[in-house]
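QA checklist item 7 of 12: single-chain prediction sanity check.
[x] sequence parsed
[x] length recorded as 84
[x] structure emitted
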Amino acid sequence: MARGWESKAVEGQVQEFESKKDRADKRRWTREQVEIRRRREVLLLSRARVEKQLQSSQDNRYREQLNRALADLDLQISKLADPD
């Protein structure tokens, strides 16, 4: 009787492992997706930095330059598809 219980427990563990493996395989991204995601994150960080500089800037010409940089970053971000 103990053997039957052990074999069922082992079978359950094997099924659980295979289930986790299937879920992990579905979450794997291609290299292209990883690169797109990395590029998008870099652009979002750059955008946040430019926004912070814009908030603290007093010079109108510098603010115009920062606004153009924001517009360019927004354009680049919009061109990248989210790989999720």
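[x] summary fact logged: The two ends are 48 Å apart (CA to CA).
[ ] second reviewer sign-off
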